[in-house]
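Example 5.3 — Aldo/keto reductase
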Amino acid sequence: MDRRQLGHTGLEIMPLVFGGNVFGWTIDQQTSFGILDAFVDAGFDTIDTADCYSMWAPGNQGGESETIIGHWLKARPGMRDKVKIFTKVGADLQQPGKKGLTSQWIKQAIDESLARLQTDYVDLYFAHWPDPDTDYAETLQAFNELKQAGKIRAIGASNLNADQLQASLDTAKRLNITPYQVLQPEYNLYDRSGFEGTLQDLCVKQNIGVVTYFSLASGFLSGKYRSKDDLAKSARGEGVGKYLDIKGHAILAALDKVAEAHHAEPAEVALAWLMAARGVTAPIASATKAHHVSSFAKAANLRLTAEELALLTQAGI
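Solution (predicted structure tokens):
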């Protein structure tokens, strides 16, 4: 596996990021520890989470994922220096004042995240969702203050379109402050329209790092969901039904063909396609079992031919 420069953040990361949304949702703390250990042992080094993970699970209120990661870091002396932690602010935590991208909330939220993570800094802090009620200037200045204070090392945004990202870049240039350096968009073999085109071009032109979420389309691209009867296989199954259409089956057929040629799994091929995509630094992917992590390593070492990449790309059109 080759390390990759994350845009102009100065950070280098391995080509796959662990998605921490499963912590405190589909896996408990003990299982999470085992998977994080396996992830690092496999040579990976970057974990993505958010302050809202995983408030959607019954009995949760948000912060569960960060808390588990913090407990893991505390239980593994020296580990903080070996891994990079990404987290986010801006989602509605359904508590008074705890949403959006105001300066006041950002400065409060980072302290709460750092406390849960049991660390003095995060490597990359994302604006999770656009906030139409707050100017880019206020948000970016707050992020820059956190950067100057040493609480964050780099700045990113998730779920921005090309116009929004360009507007934020223009604002940062006008104020002579650090702009968003990394984008986290939804992007996978099936869901491509939100990133491909002007947004992808902008990221490449401006050397903005890109880490993709829903990289396996909520597990659909693993190939384990091929009919409506399969949707009950996991807690995420109910969100997969929308992919069971002509386009989805065409993508699965292409994945199966390429996977067979490489003696690989469909998920490994889907992740390898993302790793080879123009402008993508690394996909984010989650795991609920240790053997999924070994699959990540296979994906990172999988080299698809130009013909295979074209076959997969055309299947998703």
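Remark. Residues 4-219+279-303 form a domain with the TIM Barrel fold (CATH 3.20.20.100).
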